[in-house]
Write a structure and sequence with these properties.
heterodimer, A: alpha+beta, about 30% helix, B: alpha+beta, two-stranded antiparallel ribbon, 14 strands
Chain lengths: ~625, ~500
C-alpha cells in the first residue's frame, strides 16, 4: 500500500489528467487505488483482531484523515450552534439533559461520524460516501442501538465482507485476497456518487423503477424543500402528482444530464474542480489557473465542500458561494435570446427563480413542537399535498416557491426561490432556552398515554382521544394547560416562540421548456412577487412567527390572518430593491408621469394656438 | 403616368417579398403526400353478383386497369425485391417468397397457409400465375367496411361468408386495419414478428405511437405510394437501402433546439431515442425453439408452448438492442453452407463504428432454434401444412423431406438444430420528446449501450465520439466496415453494377 506523501511531482501530471477523467467517471477511480487493508483503531488488520474497522486508521495510510476530519463540513456541521437544532422547531440537543449520546442514538444516522461523535465512539465513516454499495440501513441500526464503534463495519456489510451472526460482526476472510486486503475495485472506491449523497440529504434516485418519495425528516432536502434529484420524468414516476401525464420533464434536468452532486459541490482543493470563492478572486481574473498538486490533494483533500448561499449563517461563511453556479457552465445570453434585457434579469435574480417554477413533492410548511403526537413528534403540515403527505393516494399539488431577496455576498441581493418552513416551540427562562424533548414528553404524557388534563382541554369531541385535528394549542385555555404541566417540571417564564425559515431551492431544476417564461408571471398585475403564500394553517398560542436570524433573506411584505385562522404572507415589491416593470409602482414617478402628459398636451395645445394665431395674422397682413 | 409607377412599384415590392422573407416556412406536414379525394363507390356495381374474389377484381379493372398492371410489378405481389448473387453465382431476386426466417421458416410447401397474407387469390404452389391481374386481391388493402376476411389456409381466397358486393361498395384508401391485417400479425399472430407493429395500432393512442395516436396517421402517410409501389422495406427481406423511409422525409435532419442533441444525429438514428421500447401493450415473440415441438406438455399458455411449434418467449416493454446500421444488410440465402457450431444470423445490419453512413439503430433480435441438415450443412425448410405436414403428423423427417423437395434443397435424411438470429430494425411506436430516451439511460454505467461492443473506447460522452477520435470515413470504398452484401462485394459496387444493368 502506498504511504502518505508518496505522490511524486512528475507522476502528479499524469494523475491530474486521469483525475479529470475520473471526476466524470467515479467508478473508474477504483482502478487507480491500491488494495485496502482494513485496520482497527489500534492499527491492526481486522482479520487478525476481529475488531471493528476504523476508517481513520485504514485510510490514513495514504490520506491524512486527521486533516480531513478537521476540514469537513460533514463532521463540523452538527457542531455548529445553528445546527444544534436538527430540524425546524425541534428542541436542540444542547437542551437535552440526557446529553449527546441520546441525541446521537436518535439522530446520528445523519452524522458521518468524527468530531464530537468520535468522542462517543462514532468514527468518521469514509466508506459511507466513497464505496460503491454502503449498507446504510445496517449502519443506522448500529447507531440507533448505540453500537457506535461498529457503525463503519456495518457500512461494509453491503459488500459481503462482514456479516452479523449471533449478535456480533464476523469478518469473512474468504472475501479478502491473499494479502488480507480488499481490492479497490471490489470496494468501488471513488468520488461520492449522487446516490451516496442522497442517503442523507434527500431523495436521489437513478433507478428505472417508478420513483416514490414521502416526507421523512432524515431525507433533509426533500423533507424541507420538496427537492428530488432524479433523471426520471415526472410522468413516469410512481408519485400521484396532479397533471403528471403532461409533465414530461425530469425531476431535475441536471440529474438527467448526468451531473453528479460532487461536480458542483466539489472539494475545495480538488484540482479538477478548483474554483476560488468569488470574494477571493482577483478582480481582473476570471479564474486562478494555479492548482494544488494532485499529490497534495490526495493526501489532504479538503472536505469543506463547495457550497452556495443557502446555509443559515452563510454571510459569515468564507466558502459561501464557492460552488459552481449556473453561469459557470451555462452561456446565459445566447440561450435566452427571447428574454428582453437578459443581463438585467441575471443581475437581479438567480436562475432558479424561473427554472424551479413549481415543486412537485410535498415540503414541510409548519412544524409545531408546542404539541406532541403519540409518536412524540410535532404536529406537521405539508405544503403541496391535498391530504396526508405520507399516503401514496394523496394528490400532490405542485406548489410555487416563495420568491425572496437574499444576500449573496459579492453578488449583492438577488431574487431566489424558497420553501418557507415555520415552527413553534416552547422556551423558558430569561434567555429563552429550549424546553427539551424529555421535558415535553413528561409534560404531555403519563406513561404511554396523554396526560388526562391535556386530553380534557384539547378533546373537542369528548371521545377521550386526541385526533390530529384536536392536537393544536389554538386557545389560551389549551396553552395554559400545557404551560402548567411544564411549570410542574420546574420550568419558569414559559412562552411559545415561532420562527420562519426560508430554505433556498436549488435542485429540482426544470429544463428550459418547462421554466417560467411568461413575462406576465412577474411583470403583470398578478405578479408572483405579490402572490400570497400560506405561512401557517394556525398560529399556536396566537404567536406570530418571526423570520429566523441568519437566513440572509428578508420578508418585506405584509402578514395577515384570515377568518379560518390561516396565516399568510404577501410580498410587497415596493419594499424591494428591485423595480419590476409592470408590477412595481412609485408614487413620485406616477405623479411626474401624469403631469408630464398633461404638460405635454398643454404645450402642444399652446403651440397650436400660437400657430393658429400666427396664421390668422399673416392672412390679415396679406389681405391688407 | 403616376398610376403606372404606382403599379410597377407594387409589383416590385411583391416580387421582393416573395423572394425574401415572405415564403412559407417548411413544416413536417409538407412531407405528407396530398391525399386524393375519395370517390364514393357505394353507388357502383348495381346489379353485380360477385361469386369470388377475381370477379370483384375484374369489376375493379373496368376502371383501374392501369393500377392492376402497376400492382403486378410490386413486392406486395411478387414477394421478391432486391437482387443478390446466389452461392452458385446466379443473380436472384430475394424476398418473402424464397428466404428463410426463424419464425415459420419458409413458405414453399406451406403456401396455402402463408399466402393468406398475399394480396392475391390462389397462390397454392409454383403454378400460380403472377401475370394474371384478375388474381389480385384489391379488397384486402382497400376494404373500408371492416368485414372482409380471407379464408383460413385458403391460399388467399376469400372467406365464403364475406358479402363481396357490400365490401366492393365500401372500398377506399387503405387504413391501418388493412395494412395491419398482415403486418401486425406476421409470424402467425398478433405482435409475433414485429416488436413495433401490433394490434394496439388499429386504434392507437399517443402512448403507442405519436404519429398514429396524436395525429391519426394512416400507414400510407409515410409509406408514400406511387403507382401502387409502396415506399418502405423490411431489412429482413432486402439487403440494400433503396426505397427506404426516413424520418428526414418530413423532419429536419437536425431538428432539436438543443445543439447537444443535434450532435447525436450523425451517429444515432432518430428511432434510437424516439423508440425507447417495443411491445408497449402486446407482448412480442423474442425466441422460438422448434426443437421442443411435438411433445404433449401440460402447458396451456400458447404464448409459452405449442405442440405444433415448440417453445416461445414473449415479452412486453422490451428495451431494444443497439447496433450500427448503414441501411444495407447481410442475408442468409437458401442453400448457403453454415457452421452449426456458431449462431447463424439469418439477416444482420451492416455498418460499424468506422462507417460514416452507419448510425446506431434499435433492433428487435429474434432468436430461434430451427432444423438444419447435419450432413449438407444447410438450413432446411419444413413442410408444416397439409396432410403430411409436421403440424398434422409431427414427423420431422417427413416434413423436412417434403419441404426440401419443394425448395429444391438437398436433404441427407439427417437433421439437427441450429441457433439463429434475426435482426428487426424498429421504426414504429415512435414516442414524442417527452417520452424519448434520456441522456442518463445511455450515458451511465449499466446503461442501454454497450459502448465497447459498438466500437467506442468507452462512453463517448466522456471519451469523445467518432469524429473526435478520427474514426470515420465517409468514403465507403476506403472503409473496411462499409456495407458488404453476402457475396462479399461492397454494396456500393454492387449497386453501381445493378444501376449499369438496368
Amino acid at each position: 500500500m502506498a504511504r502518505r506523501g508518496a505522490f511524486s511531482a512528475p507522476g502528479a501530471i499524469i494523475l491530474l489528467t486521469l483525475l479529470l477523467l475520473l471526476a466524470a467517471m467515479p467508478t473508474a477511480a477504483a482502478a487507480l487505488h491500491p488494495d485496502v487493508e482494513l485496520l482497527d483503531a489500534d492499527g491492526n488488520n481486522v482479520l487478525d483482531s476481529g475488531g471493528p474497522v476504523s476508517p481513520m486508521q485504514t485510510c490514513n495510510g495514504c490520506h491524512d484523515t486527521d486533516f480531513i476530519a478537521a476540514h469537513s463540513d460533514h463532521i463540523q456541521a452538527l457542531d455548529r450552534p445553528q445546527h444544534a437544532r436538527l430540524a425546524p422547531g425541534q428542541p436542540s440537543y444542547a437542551a437535552d439533559p440526557a446529553g449527546y449520546v441520546r441525541w446521537l442514538k436518535a439522530y446520528g444516522t445523519m452524522h458521518v461520524g468524527g468530531g464530537d461523535a468520535a468522542k462517543a465512539g462514532l468514527d468518521l465513516d469514509c466508506f459511507l460516501c466513497h464505496t460503491v454499495r454502503p449498507d446504510v440501513e445496517a449502519r443506522n441500526r448500529e447507531i440507533t442501538d448505540g453500537r457506535f464503534r461498529w457503525a463503519a463495519t456495518a457500512t461494509l456489510s453491503g459488500l459481503g465482507v462482514v456479516e452479523k451472526t449471533g449478535g456480533s460482526w464476523q469478518w469473512k476472510r474468504a472475501s479478502f485476497n491473499e494479502d488480507a486486503a480488499l481490492s479497490a475495485d471490489f470496494l468501488g472506491i471513488g468520488a461520492p456518487t449522487s446516490t451516496a449523497c442522497g442517503a442523507c440529504h434527500g431523495t436521489v434516485d437513478f433507478s428505472r423503477a417508478p420513483l416514490t418519495s414521502f416526507p421523512d425528516p432524515s431525507n433533509w432536502n426533500t423533507y424541507l424543500r420538496g427537492e428530488i434529484y432524479s433523471p426520471q420524468r415526472l410522468a413516469d414516476s410512481g408519485m400521484n402528482i396532479q397533471g403528471k401525464d403532461h409533465l414530461g420533464r425530469p425531476f431535475d434536468v441536471h440529474a438527467e444530464r448526468m451531473v453528479s452532486c460532487s461536480n458542483c459541490h466539489h472539494a475545495q482543493n480538488d484540482p479538477a474542480s478548483f474554483r476560488s470563492a468569488q470574494e477571493r478572486r482577483l478582480g481582473r481574473l476570471h479564474t486562478d489557473v494555479r492548482r494544488p498538486s494532485i499529490g497534495d490533494f490526495l493526501e489532504t483533500p479538503d472536505h469543506r465542500l463547495a457550497r452556495g448561499w443557502t446555509s443559515f449563517g452563510a454571510a459569515d461563511d468564507p466558502f459561501a458561494g464557492s460552488m459552481r453556479r449556473c453561469e459557470d457552465c451555462h452561456e446565459v445570453e445566447s440561450s435566452h435570446t427571447w428574454l428582453p434585457y437578459p443581463k438585467l434579469h441575471m443581475a437581479a435574480m438567480d436562475c432558479e427563480s424561473c427554472h424551479i417554477p413549481r415543486v412537485t413533492a410535498p415540503a414541510l410548511q409548519e412544524a409545531d413542537w408546542t404539541v406532541l403526537t403519540p409518536e412524540r413528534q410535532p404536529r406537521r403540515v405539508f405544503r403541496g399535498v391535498d391530504g396526508p403527505a405520507d399516503s401514496p393516494a394523496t394528490l400532490i399539488t405542485p406548489w410555487r416557491p416563495l420568491l425572496l431577496e437574499r444576500f449573496e455576498g459579492g453578488r449583492g441581493e438577488r431574487i431566489s426561490p424558497f420553501s418557507l418552513v415555520t415552527s413553534w416551540r416552547w422556551v423558558s427562562g430569561p434567555k429563552g432556552e429550549d424546553v427539551s424533548q424529555e421535558e415535553l414528553n413528561q409534560a404531555w404524557f403519563e406513561g404511554d398515554d396523554y396526560a388526562p388534563s391535556i386530553v380534557a382541554a384539547l378533546d373537542a369531541n369528548q371521545d377521550h382521544q386526541l385526533s390530529p385535528d384536536e392536537l393544536v394549542l389554538d386557545t389560551p385555555t389549551k396553552v395554559d394547560v400545557v404551560r402548567k404541566r411544564l411549570e410542574g417540571l420546574g420550568l419558569k417564564d414559559l412562552r411559545i416562540v415561532g420562527e420562519m425559515e426560508p430554505y433556498g431551492l436549488h435542485h429540482g431544476v426544470a429544463p428550459g421548456s418547462y421554466a417560467q417564461s411568461d413575462c406576465q408571471a412577474c411583470h403583470g398585475r398578478g405578479s408572483q412577487f405579490r402572490r400570497a403564500t400560506q405561512v401557517a394553517s394556525v398560529l399556536p398560542g396566537g404567536v406570530e412567527p418571526a423570520l429566523a436570524a441568519g437566513s440572509g433573506s428578508h420578508m418585506d411584505g405584509h402578514f395577515w390572518k384570515d377568518q379560518d385562522g390561516r396565516y399568510w404572507y404577501q410580498g410587497e415589491i415596493q419594499q424591494s430593491s428591485v423595480y419590476v416593470l409592470g408590477a412595481s409602482y412609485d408614487p413620485i414617478i406616477d405623479f411626474l408621469g401624469k403631469w408630464l402628459i398633461v404638460l405635454t398636451l398643454l404645450v402642444v395645445a399652446f403651440h397650436a394656438l400660437l400657430r393658429f394665431l400666427g396664421a390668422r395674422r399673416n392672412q390679415r397682413e396679406v389681405q391688407s | 403616368m403616376r398610376s403606372r409607377w404606382f403599379v410597377l412599384s407594387l409589383g416590385a415590392v411583391a416580387v421582393f417579398l416573395s423572394l425574401t422573407g415572405c415564403s412559407k416556412e417548411r413544416t413536417p406536414w409538407d412531407g405528407i403526400a396530398e391525399i386524393p379525394a375519395h370517390v364514393d363507390h357505394s353507388t357502383f356495381f348495381e346489379g353485380a353478383k360477385f361469386t369470388d374474389g377475381p370477379s370483384v377484381t375484374k369489376a375493379c379493372m373496368e376502371c383501374h386497369e392501369k393500377e392492376a398492371r402497376d400492382f403486378l410489378k410490386t413486392t406486395h405481389w411478387t414477394w421478391q425485391g432486391d437482387s443478390v448473387r446466389l452461392p452458385d453465382g446466379t443473380i436472384e431476386h430475394i424476398g418473402k417468397a424464397n428466404l428463410i426466417n426463424n419464425f415459420c421458416i419458409g413458405i414453399k410447401s406451406n403456401e396455402k397457409h402463408c399466402t393468406t397474407c398475399h394480396a392475391g387469390y390462389g397462390w397454392r404452389d409454383d403454378s400460380f400465375d403472377f401475370n394474371d391481374p384478375t388474381r389480385i386481391d384489391c379488397l384486402i388493402c382497400h376494404d373500408n367496411t371492416g368485414t372482409y376476411q380471407k379464408a383460413e389456409d385458403g391460399a388467399g381466397e376469400v372467406d365464403p361468408d364475406v358479402d363481396l358486393l357490400a365490401v366492393a361498395k365500401g372500398v377506399g384508401a387503405p387504413t391501418r386495419q388493412n395494412c395491419g391485417f398482415c403486418h401486425f400479425r406476421g409470424g402467425g399472430g398478433d405482435a409475433v414478428k414485429h416488436g413495433d407493429l401490433d394490434g394496439s395500432m388499429y386504434f392507437p393512442t399517443e402512448r403507442i405511437d405519436v404519429h398514429m395516436g396524436r395525429y391519426d396517421f394512416q400507414c400510407y402517410y409515410c409509406h408514400r405510394t406511387v403507382d401502387h409501389d409502396i415506399k418502405g422495406r423490411s431489412m429482413t427481406l432486402n439487403v440494400s437501402d433503396e426505397n427506404r423511409i426516413a424520418c428526414t422525409d418530413c423532419h429536419d435532419s437536425r431538428p432539436h433546439k438543443l445543439q447537444r442533441l443535434n450532435e447525436h444525429t450523425d451517429a444515432v438514428a432518430c428511432e434510437t431515442c424516439h423508440i425507447p421500447e417495443m411491445a408497449i401493450d402486446e407482448a412480442t415473440k423474442m425466441s422460438w425453439d422448434w426443437s421442443q415441438a411435438g411433445q404433449d406438455l401440460p402447458i396451456k399458455d400458447h404464448h409459452v408452448y405449442a405442440k405444433t411449434k415448440g417453445r416461445f418467449v414473449f415479452k412486453k416493454h422490451v428495451i431494444p438492442e443497439y447496433y450500427w446500421y448503414n441501411g444495407h444488410s447481410g442475408r442468409y440465402l437458401m442453400g448457403e453452407k453454415i457452421n452449426p457450431d456458431e449462431v447463424l444470423k439469418l439477416d444482420w445490419p451492416l455498418g460499424g463504428y468506422h462507417d460514416g453512413r452507419a448510425k446506431i439503430w434499435p433492433f428487435k433480435v429474434h432468436r430461434g432454434k430451427q432444423p438444419y441438415d447435419t450432413v449438407n450443412k444447410i438450413v432446411l425448410v419444413p413442410n408444416t401444412v397439409g396432410p403430411q405436414g409436421y403440424w398434422t403428423i409431427f414427423d420431422w423427417d417427413t416434413a423436412l423431406r417434403i419441404g426440401s423437395e419443394h425448395n429444391h434443397l438437398p436433404y441427407s435424411g439427417h437433421y439437427g438444430w441450429i441457433s439463429t438470429e434475426m435482426y428487426w430494425p424498429l421504426a414504429h411506436m415512435v414516442q414524442p420528446k417527452e417520452k424519448a430516451v434520456q441522456c442518463d439511460e445511455c450515458h451511465s454505467p449499466g446503461g442501454r449501450m454497450d459502448w465497447k461492443a459498438l466500437g467506442y473506447r468507452g462512453d463517448p460522452a466522456f471519451e469523445g465520439g467518432r469524429r473526435e477520435n478520427g474514426a470515420i470515413s465517409m468514403n465507403v470504398k476506403e472503409n473496411p466496415d462499409a456495407s458488404v452484401i453476402p457475396s462479399g462485394e461492397p454494396a456500393d459496387a454492387f449497386e453501381d453494377r445493378q444501376e449499369g444493368g438496368k
